[in-house]
Hints:
The chain is of the alpha+beta class. It has one domain (3-91): Orthogonal Bundle (Arc Repressor Mutant, subunit A), CATH 1.10.10.10. The protein contains five helices and three strands; from the N terminus they run αβααββαα. The chain has helices at 3-11, 18-28, 37-49, 69-88, 90-95, and strands spanning 16-17, 53-58, 63-67. It has a three-stranded antiparallel sheet with strand order 1-3-2. A hairpin with a 4-residue loop joins strand 2 and strand 3 (63-67). Helix 1 packs across helix 2. The chain starts with a helix and ends with a helix.
Amino acid sequence: MTEAMYYVLLALMRPNHGYQLMHAIAEVSHGRVNMGPGTLYGVLSRMQKDGLISLAENDGRRKTYKITTDGEQALRVEYGRLKALIEDSRILEEGEGNG
């Protein structure tokens, strides 16, 4: 899963439309990830095809997306993988100061 996909799923724990989603991603990533409209809509399209998100509402002017059960499961699996990476990296902290 790409970083962009991870943050889109994380931001979609609450349904959002595109513009709100760009701001929510910047917020949950503490400003590290700023996604432009082209990137965002490409990711949304791919994730919708993969069944990770769905259209919650389309009023003709804006589309509101929500995470699906499969999307939430994928997010939890990725979270576990990232957490394991951090745990595996503890050796770096143990090795500090050993020059």
